[in-house]
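Quick one: structure for this chain?
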Amino acid sequence: MQATNSTRTTNQPLTPDAAAEYLGLDVKTVTRWARQGYLPGHPLGEGKRKFWRFFESELQEWLAAKSNRSDAA
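Got it. Here's what it folds into:
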């Protein structure tokens, strides 16, 4: 077995609170952006009262894409 030097991410879904802490945003912003499709999120349930979950790897990719765009401007 070989050891990898990559940053470890968890496969466990993050709650909106944990995602907000990870991104340094307010919880309401995280859920609003997820609802609008701006932030990668996964709704659980139906109707207005959805439970949102987020994956750290997807949030990392989203952050990298946002930081790359600002460097190009």
